[in-house]
């Protein structure tokens, strides 16, 4: 078993990161457990693909209901967002199923397979087992001890094509132990390939499921002069297509994609990086992008990241670690190189005006929408979402909230999101899926409200006739309008169903029976179909907007939408 830590984004006051746990054995791994420590100036504010408990600076992560078993050769990626005050430091003292795993600073390593570490120099301590830990980048020294796995394992770095690239992994030195038998498995990411003019690019998938995946391209300026107006090009196989992209703007021609900067990341200073993330749909098996070009020059040695073994390198040098398992000789492992896990990010955009908006990911509108609290609310917008920065005021809990800070696809009072295909007639929708990650503060009165707006005609402004609300979570003595009319299980989640009117439009509300922090690729149409059994909504009506945010009555600073996506496909 290995575990890989990868930061995916950073800004002045926080960061996001993933832990990828890989089953390198021959039998299924059930009820896994991940433990790590954060420094005192950092704390986890949100976590997805797992459940987290905290004791001081120590965190314990256990599976979600859907990923409790990891089959041999497969992985589970747990992601989290953390707040920080001061300088960033990666987690330490990593344990998987109670056993130390290399790949963090000052941690202990099991067995003697070299891993890859995050930045700097990483030294494993001593322990017992057969496989060394895994991180990204840096130099890693495998642990020493007694193991039962001998032999030699190797991993090949990630895929890359074209050009001449360089990327030699860090070196890990196994300890001394005793044991016999078996074959150990080294894990490494491919070398970071070099394109023209001191530019490197590294590819890393961060999450995968049966019909899609999320991945990052990190572009680093290794030269001595700023790089402006960068351009990234790559091909995806015909069974994969990008559905959403952030920190850049994307153009598509068949299976070829061209990514150009957003206004805030068009210049990369020497030694700095820009991370472009995207979500893709797939049918059939996954394959990474190919034919990578940065500023028109081929780049080689990109790593596959987050996998039990490296991919296949077809260009440049991209060699993952070669390791000898925890045998009598301890073994030697050479990890793949990484970019030091610096990530990129901005301090965010602060919106203070009552109805101020901005766009993110070239796909969604983020709005302050303090319609009942003029001048008393502000939000901080990040490249993937937003959080409430100030909330000065309060509203009676038996009345309307202070506002609806939110992110949306579609239309809201004449403002449309970039490239939206809404409004669209319900009968013309083939699929409508959405993903969201929320952060819930412990103070304040609020609900985490997801809104689906429907109307008999394709309007882009004014009030829609039907509102479908999903209460992902709520805190304080508040409730939806109307009264309870039943219960429903939708796409695997349980809800209490309310029906009523707010005086302007009809409302059907689905109140989660337990808080939902993260929900990936849920079926929006199931909520619309259920609403059609309660309201006179037909397939001739139109879907005009999909929105996610918060309705605060008081407090609620720190409430945030960490990430959001909505994808509506017509027939």
From TrEMBL:
- Keywords, alphabetical: Carbohydrate metabolism, Glycosidase, Hydrolase, Polysaccharide degradation
Per the record, the GO terms for biological process are: polysaccharide catabolic process
The region called Disordered is annotated at 98-193, 297-345
PROSITE patterns with a match to the protein in the record: CBM2
Any one Pfam family match given in the protein's UniProt record, by short name: CBM_2
Q: Where is the CBM2 domain?
A: 1-104, 192-302
Q: Molecular function terms in GO for this entry?
A: cellulase activity; polysaccharide binding
**Family according to the record:** Belongs to the glycosyl hydrolase 12 (cellulase H) family.
PANTHER family membership: BLR1656 PROTEIN, XYLOGLUCAN-SPECIFIC ENDO-BETA-1,4-GLUCANASE A
Q: What is this protein called?
A: CBM2 domain-containing protein
What organism is the protein native to?
Answer: Mycobacterium kansasii
